[in-house]
Amino acid sequence: MTATTPTPLTSDDDWWRSAVVYQVYVRSFADANGDGVGDLQGIRERLPYLRELGVDALWLTPFYTSPQVDAGYDVADYRDVDPLFGSLADFDAMIAGAHDLGLRIIVDLVPNHTSSAHPWFQAALAAAPGSPERERYLFADGKGAHGELPPNDWESIFGGPAWTRVPDGQWYLHLFDPAQPDLNWRHPEVRAEFEDVLRFWLDRGVDGFRIDVAHGMIKAEGLPDVGFSTMTTGQRQVELLGKGRLPYFDQDEVHDIYRAWRPILDSYPGGRMAVAEAWAETPQRLARYIGPDELHQAFSFDFLDATWSADSFRKVIDTALAESTIVGAPTTWVLSNHDRQRHVTRYGDGEVGLRRARAAALLMLSLPGCAYVYQGEELGLPEVLDLPDELRQDPAFLRTGESRDGCRVPIPWSGELAPYGFGPHGSELSWLPAPATWRALSVAAQTGVAGSTLELYRAALRIRREHPALAGTAGGVTWLEAGPGLLAFTRSGGDTTLTCVVNISGAPARVEGYGRPLVASEELTEQGSGHLLPVDCAAWFERP
Question: Which of 165, 245, 397, 510 is at a distance of 20 to 30 A from 239, taking alpha carbons?
Answer without folding.
Answer: 165
